[in-house]
Design a protein that fits this description.
Elements lengths: L7 H22 L6 H14 L3 E5 L2 H10 L8 E4 L6 H8 L3 E4 L11 H7 L4 E5 L10 H11 L2 E5 L7 E4 L2 E4 L6 E5 L13 E5 L2 H10 L21 H10 L3 H19 L5 E2 L7 E2 L5 E5 L2 H10 L29 H9 E4 L7 H15 L1
Parallel strand pairs: 2-3, 2-4, 4-5, 5-8
Antiparallel strand pairs: 1-9, 6-7, 6-11, 8-9, 10-12, 12-13
Helix pairs in contact: 1-8, 2-8, 3-4
Amino acid sequence: MNVPLLDLVAQYRAIRDEVLPALQAVIESQQFVMGPPVVQLEAAVASLCRAPHAIACASGTDALLLALKALRLEPGDEVITTPFTFFATAGAIHNAGGTPVFVDVEPDTFNIDPAAVAAALTPRTRAIVPVHLYGQMAALERLLPLARARDVKIIEDAAQAIGARRKIDGQWRMAGELGWVTGFSFFPSKNLGAWGDGGMMVTADAAVAERLRKLRLHGGAKQYHHDEVGTNSRLDTVQAAVLLAKLPHLVSWSGRRREIAAYYTERLADLPTLQPPVVDPCNEPIFHQYTVRVERRDALQAYLKSKAIGTAIYYPVPLHLQHCFSHLGYQPGQLPQSERAATEVLSLPVYPELTRDQLDYVIDAIRGFYR
């Protein structure tokens, strides 16, 4: 049996009759740049996130980069974030002119540790970028008071968390609802994935929304008139059409991922060599990844590969130890939870189209390895 880490072909087969007509409509309109589906998608994502404004852009990386550029960072300005995430989080901080300040993660959820954030705040701090890793929201209710007290901004990196929510003060709050700006990614492997790159920024701040719209269009709201130096970061109409066709399925897809995660957790719970994902009771995650901690991780991954089971390591080298950030002076052992996680985590297949036979095959293979 073959169980890939992700099977986008299976997803396509299930929604082909919805996506292909949407693409055909774009082709017939010949409006490939900023066509009507882009505006429609912005409205739909804003509604999903309970945010007044959504601004589409070319990628999840650009969603973070443009949000950070909106801060007008100056040399020496610091932005606190996690080292246990995809490179784009810290890369965007650097490319926007800021200095990444890495703090450790909580050992259970792998999300940024608010206590570590509090200890890292300085007069130079301009923003905090929590990552809702693997589709589970960070503890915003602990981060927002820190930000307000220092007059710094929260920029949510929700690239892996569209549709995730967290109960705060008795109310469900969506990823993207509370941050100053939130960045989403529509990379094909995401829970809501395009057929290429794509991103979205959401915000409740009308002024910053207007500025983000300009920044993605070379810094001007009117053609050939530029208020500042922006960039070209538009979402293609084709991608918007694909995403609009997929969006009605997002809730059921995320629900199916939670079902699969619960099945894995139940069937693997008695293995002392494996720790299933820990879900914060305040969260309803979307399980972009189902990531376990395991002993003899690399050997297990090789064994599963021999059984035609796809896995991935997200992420093998924490950002504070990446060569490109060596000038920041971080040393091994400085952020132990992130470094330990990098040696133990392994992500298993969790896409909605998985069959029970495939799930049992993965579970039996893991149990067999440790037997």
